[in-house]
Design a protein that fits this description.
This protein has 461 residues and is an alpha/beta fold. The chain is 36% helix and 21% strand. The strands form three sheets. Strands 1, 2, 3, 4, 5, 14, 15, 16 and 17 form a nine-stranded mixed sheet that branches. Strand 2 (25-34) and strand 3 (37-43) form a beta hairpin. Helix 2 runs parallel beside helix 3 (141-152) and helix 12 packs across helix 13 (407-413).
Length: 461
């Protein structure tokens, strides 16, 4: 549809942080949305004489930013929150895998709805789920997750995960919770062919995503990379999350995680890794040289005592870095906008101290950085003419923010800002801090029911 014929929404009288290449900001400006695209952004009031204006919004007291982009999550964990709260990563996994191994399609659907609702209400317009637990006979788990994202109206990447190294092979998950090498590859290919959309305004994309070096065979890593590149999709996995993982790789493979990833074809501009906490200078240089991206998950890293990722050093080297919620069994809030603040604060506890990150760098991590990591920086992540209309209006004149003069500082350093409006593909998903695409109370009830059912199944053995 030509822009002149498309229905238009105008937002004006608002502060704007475009997060473009020049970090252009307007103290008082406008955004014009035509159809599912951003038509124009600028200072002052919107151009006169625009046709087909169906909605005009007074944005006084608000900051408009690109929508937040989540680059790492495990939706199914929504129904296992609050468990194993004093564990490191490996002990946490050992404690929870027996429960996760009993999930099924209704549980995953309810958990996905809960995870998506919490993120969307907090300004996420592009979500991502790394789902890697596929117990035998559990139903269409990928379809359940994709359907939940479609119903919520958010843009979505499913990282179709897999595990083939169980307890009998020295891994952590129970034997009945893993797939065979052949089964994992076949199911992953089927998911890509059925659901991946490569178009500019795609609402659903799929990545190939074996879980981690300690739950996946080398054959699955290598053949998974080959599969992804044959199908033309991205690759995702966990990397360098803990000291124990590094020791595991050295003992099993005779090399550190980054060397292992390179040996299996898992470094490249089509790859992004979750966590990357324990990276030395050569690791960071390898990621920068190959364009490999990082999903930084500060709250989960702290919750599991994994450590502080070297985000300032990664950014300085040119590594693409976005933010991730991570699974809600290791980040019980389930919100990405809190990660803007936590990324800044936690990184200031590291070697760079107060110079580690500033408010605008944190906002960039959560928007444009995430778009880079997901391979969609030409489509989303900044407010620029021609890009997709994924944006958020944050209320910054209320109790929590009204005395912070700079609106970007307000949403990063301050309390979680209410979302007055969130558009995805030009369509409202949140209005006045409430979802318009889903019933939050019904989602909460369904998730609670499925969590209780899961607990009963586990208790029965």
């Amino acid at each position: 549809m030509a822009a002149s014929a498309a229905a238009r929404t105008i937002i004006e009288n608002c502060a704007i942080a475009t997060v473009d290449a020049n970090d252009t900001e307007y103290a008082s400006g406008y955004v014009v949305v035509a159809g599912n695209r951003i038509e124009s952004v600028g200072a002052g009031t919107a151009p006169e004489g625009l046709e087909n204006v169906v909605r005009r919004i007074d944005g006084a007291g608000h900051l408009v930013t690109p929508g937040l982009v989540n680059t790492h999550h495990h939706f199914y964990q929504w129904i296992t929150r609050g468990m194993a709260t004093d564990h490191n990563l490996f002990n946490w996994l050992v404690a929870l895998y027996p429960t996760w191994a009993r999930i099924d399609e209704p549980m995953v659907k309810a958990a996905a709805q809960g995870s998506l609702a919490m993120m969307a209400r907090g300004g996420v317009t592009t979500a991502m789920d790394h789902h890697y637990v596929f117990p035998k006979g559990s139903g269409d788990l990928s379809g359940a997750v994709i359907g939940a994202a479609s119903d919520m109206g958010v843009r979505f990447t499913l990282a179709r995960g897999s595990m083939d190294r169980s307890e009998k092979d020295g891994g952590l998950p129970p034997d009945f919770a893993v797939e065979t090498l052949e089964g994992a590859l076949a199911a992953t290919e089927e998911t890509v062919k059925k659901h991946h959309d490569a178009s500019f305004d795609a609402m659903t994309q799929v990545a190939v995503a074996p879980c981690s070096p300690f739950s996946v065979s080398t054959q699955l890593m290598k053949q998974g990379a080959e599969l992804a590149r044959r199908l033309g999709v991205r690759l995702h996995t966990h990397g360098s999350e803990t000291v124990e993982e590094e020791q595991f790789c050295k003992e099993l493979f005779g090399m550190g995680p980054t060397e292992y990833f390179e040996s299996t074809g898992w470094l490249g501009s089509d790859v992004w890794m979750a966590h990357c906490v324990h990276m030395n200078d050569s690791d960071i240089a390898a990621f920068a040289r190959t364009g490999t991206g990082v999903a930084h998950c500060p709250s989960s890293n702290a919750r599991l005592a994994a450590g502080i990722a070297r985000v300032p050093d990664m950014l300085k080297a040119g590594v693409p870095v976005g933010l991730g919620v991570d699974g809600t069994a290791s980040n019980e809030s389930g919100e990405l906008h809190t990660e803007l603040r936590n990324a800044l604060l936690i990184n200031r506890l590291g070697a760079h101290r107060e110079a580690a990150l500033n408010a605008r760098q944190a906002l960039r991590l959560g928007t444009y950085g995430g778009a880079q990591v997901l391979g969609r920086a030409d489509q989303i992540g900044s407010l620029e003419a021609g890009k997709l209309a994924d944006l958020v209006m944050w209320k910054v004149d209320g109790l929590g923010h009204s005395t912070i003069a700079d609106p970007v500082t307000a949403i990063v350093f301050g309390a979680a800002a209410p979302v007055t409006l969130s558009l995805v593909n030009g369509k409202p998903v949140v209005e006045d801090n409430h979802l318009v695409t889903a019933d939050e109370d019904a989602i909460a009830r369904a998730a609670r029911t499925e969590a209780q059912r899961l607990a009963r199944i586990v208790a029965q053995g």
